[in-house]
C-alpha cells in the first residue's frame, strides 16, 4: 500500500468513523511513509483529525506491535483454535 491507498482507507473508513468521536480523541499510527506523507497530513488536518506525532524509529512507542502481541496471546490462551477456519 502507498499513501494514495492509505488516503482511500482514511476517506472510506477512518474519517467517517471519527465524525462520531469526541474531538479530544487522537489517532496514533507509526511513522511508515504512507502514514506520514504530506498528502496524508493535509487530509488529516482538513478533517480535523488529531494525531500523535511519534519520533521515527521508536519501537517502544509502537502500539500496533503491542496490540498484535496481546491479540496473539489472547488467541493462544483463551480461544485455542483447533483448525485454520476457527481463526
TrEMBL record:
InterPro entries listed in its UniProt record: RNaseH-like_sf, RNaseH_sf, Tc1-like_DDE_dom
Regions that span the bilayer: none
Tc1-like transposase DDE domain residues: 2-87
Name of the protein this chain belongs to: Tc1-like transposase DDE domain-containing protein
Domain of life where this protein originates: Eukaryota
Pfam families for this protein: DDE_3 (PF13358)
A GO term for molecular function: nucleic acid binding
Amino acid at each position: 500500500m502507498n499513501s494514495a491507498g492509505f488516503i482511500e482507507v482514511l476517506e472510506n473508513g477512518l474519517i467517517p468513523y471519527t465524525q462520531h468521536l469526541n474531538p479530544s480523541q487522537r489517532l496514533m499510527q507509526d511513522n511508515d511513509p504512507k502514514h506520514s506523507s504530506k498528502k496524508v497530513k493535509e487530509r488529516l488536518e482538513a478533517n480535523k483529525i488529531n494525531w500523535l506525532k511519534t519520533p521515527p524509529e521508536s519501537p517502544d512507542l509502537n502500539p500496533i506491535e503491542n496490540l498484535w502481541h496481546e491479540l496473539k496471546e489472547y488467541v493462544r490462551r483463551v480461544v485455542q483454535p483447533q483448525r485454520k477456519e476457527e481463526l
